[in-house]
């Protein structure tokens, strides 16, 4: 198992070097085989349990830097790795494919580090690999104007560095004497009432990459500057390892005395993030922006599960805590596959249309059936429709929050109850969102005759979405060897043959494999009726309903705005929409030559949280620049001396 991951890491390093040399084909091959190596390693890790396999990489003085993969991390790496493999096998849309491969190799190398490193300093380095690897991929795609793409990536990096600073503070507070993670639980317990503050720092640090509010606002700009392949990695393995890191902090290191307050905070943040993200996703006209907000929504749902696990842990309900943590893993595993299929479908649409706009086209009619089935199954999963992976994950999540009556804290019970109501609202809007992106983005009347390639990875991910749910009753046992919450009996109580159960059979149950089988059998009825009708009457063509118009225009179409405008008006207190109409005239004002129509929604946090900080930093940099850049050589030498003293002092302190 360790050899497989070592081989994968070496191949990722090779991909980085080959990409920098602009040998994109060799870099792609290295990424493909490196991803296969980590998939094999993940399977071996899950099959044998977390076990004693620990590899020592190097030493920091007397502190060994070790790498060890827990079952939960192996689960998330495996499903995220499958989406990454599909992205590498798909045709590239990057303007600089070699540089893109280097960024992907750097991000995957960082993912391995975040998933398995057991020492704080090395972990922070791997965490930065994730950030800069993602930024390199998005910049190498070059699908936006350079200035706009650079601004989006700088905005992303700035918010991610806020998270990195929060994690650095956690390292200084918990790892001042020992940076090994094994000692952090004991160190955290010594802080007493201040332990909750450290938990907030961890939530800020990992939440910046997970897209927990207010950090989800970097998602649409960054995702829309790159390709769907980049989005598949960002929404898959990178998101998954960030969630694992947050779970390790909340369930393994956090003192139980602070778990109630932290759990309430996590449930609240996750629920509000999911609601706001899916509301904004519904209004998007760009595939990537819509799917980016959808990623933040699903990350919020997983954080709700983590918050529930923390609340159950605080009351000593270890079985329920294990259930909630496992539900988060199930949800993100299926999300990686579904989001990968939709992101890669967006690339195929853009290769035909020339852009990522959600507008009516004949892509689905002209594309081979493989693309249509893969995209349909991905959209169904993100809409939580049975019998897909998304349905199984969200069904489990609802059953988990319904266990709130076991909690002793009234605040915790109310929080989970309100979280369940928020999840119901999120699920309803997610269904409408996926109908929009699939119905408008792949169907319609526009003529296109382009050949569509790269459809097989989409089909594979779509079928895996079904297989994931159908095999779930038998694959959950692989998580029984996890180090924490370490209640194998809970995993055994979540299944009964082909049936999924939230610990008690009489509480609730479903069976994804039986749902899949019955769905296939029942589908034969309408297919037989269609076949009989076609043989008896032939194909009938009738006009579509044109909103009551007597004469239906040839180019009649439902736009993305028309589809989502009702909800835009209903939730105008959230969106704060603006509509601008500009006219250009020829000679006199009543001869209109062109009409320009623009509409937008205002972000929630940017105007009052991020922009004032940007202005403050600009003002301070201008004033400090006048003081620091004074042209005095003695002053410059003094600055260097002070900086060296600070560096030496920090080294001795650590």
Structure description:
With 654 residues, the chain is mainly alpha-helical. It is built from 24 helices and 6 strands. The protein has helices at 2-20, 24-48, 71-89, 97-116, 120-141, 146-174, 184-189, 195-210, 219-223, 228-253, 259-282, 287-314, 318-353, 363-366, 369-382, 389-401, 410-442, 456-475, 488-492, 512-537, 560-570, 572-575, 606-628, 633-653, and strands spanning 55-60, 63-67, 495-496, 499-500, 578-586, 588-600. The strands form 3 sheets. The chain has a two-stranded antiparallel ribbon. A two-stranded antiparallel ribbon has the order 3-4. Helix 2 (24-48) packs antiparallel against helix 3. It is globular and about 85 Å long. The model has no long low-confidence stretch (mean pLDDT 89). InterPro entries: ComplexI-like_HydComp, ND/Mrp_TM. It is a multi-pass membrane protein. Residues 121-413 form the NADH:quinone oxidoreductase/Mrp antiporter transmembrane domain. This is Hydrogenase.
